[in-house]
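Support case: user asked for a sample of complex input and structure output to validate their parser. Sending the pair below.
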Amino acid sequence: TIISTLESSLSKKQMLKGKRILISAGPTQEKIDPVRYFTNHSSGKMGYAIAEVAAQLGAQVTLVSGPVSLETPPNVNRIDVTTAAEMYQVINSHFEDSEIIIKAAAVADYRPKQTVDQKMKKKDGELSITLERTNDILQSLGDHKTNQYLVGFAAETHDVLEFGTEKLKKKNLDAIVINDLTKPGAGFGVDTNEVTLLTRTEKKFTFPVASKKQIAQQILNEVAIDLGEQGK
Amino acid sequence: TIISTLESSLSKKQMLKGKRILISAGPTQEKIDPVRYFTNHSSGKMGYAIAEVAAQLGAQVTLVSGPVSLETPPNVNRIDVTTAAEMYQVINSHFEDSEIIIKAAAVADYRPKQTVDQKMKKKDGELSITLERTNDILQSLGDHKTNQYLVGFAAETHDVLEFGTEKLKKKNLDAIVINDLTKPGAGFGVDTNEVTLLTRTEKKFTFPVASKKQIAQQILNEVAIDLGEQGK
């Protein structure tokens, strides 16, 4: 098949041999009290698939992972975090030393402004919770990057291409992987995905529904080519 | 050992033979938008252990489960739900036909008052979310029960015995299993537990740290005895 041919030719080429790649995956959990928290539906599968394939292509992979129930892929250095603040800290500490950064994690945009150390007792009536913004990791990486190749993700439910294109520019990315969460074989939880890859150099690839591992191969193939063309 | 002797004598006796038991387990997820939600740290392990042991003791077990990554125990009829509202509905529809109800699920007390069908875009600054109370399933069961034997759980971080005793009375329970979440071998996520069981008949049992399956055996043993003493 085309995919297995692609897989074997990529592996043979070791297209990412020796490259230091930093990948983030999974959701974050933002604590309200010792029992309750905010989170999102990211399963981590897409980021883990990218980490697995990147390692097969010869890269030195560091995977910063939110709480997921997935096994660490072979030859991948995994660092577990829980909150957006921890994710920010770990990614920042590895950023300078990385050549490619792929931010597949679905980091919480908001966290409760106040958290309590004892379980809240419920009361009659409504309850209002104030949320504050977490640090925008991708924006921060885009603002501070020097020679790094930075890939973001956009998971949207409407106007996906428009949002994705805008995000690519606003966050100073080199490429963005755009997911339409409303498509049945795409997005969170499922084992398949269907994405559009846009590059800063205005290349646009549409990868039809395939396993997340196959999508990972296609993404990394185009990233490696784009990187090569920029002489990085 | 004491435990394996207990296990074998319980299994031999089939202490719950033919009893219709309804067990709830796991957390619920309360949607904010298609990506974000509130939840809690319940893993479902305690409820699943009770379902497994109850089936071994000959009971007809229906397990109403929130989203967990656990396998269904043998001979257990499992019904999956996501939200507190779904949990309420499924439990209500099985309640009349059940002889024993064990509510081990950690059902959300609050849900977002408004949910949106498109992913919210983040904005600068703080965000306030209004939460409303979900139905209190245990209170409703306690208020409406006729001949059913009703067991609740109390998972607390402080004044655990006081809260548990109060909950037993207020919710009109026959027994309550009290967890101290601050103890290292107890509560959410871990494979062990350490609980106090109180009955309406003022029996009090303290089960030291053991596997959740062993704790399940001890709870069901005392429930079966208490039930027998009441001629149910």
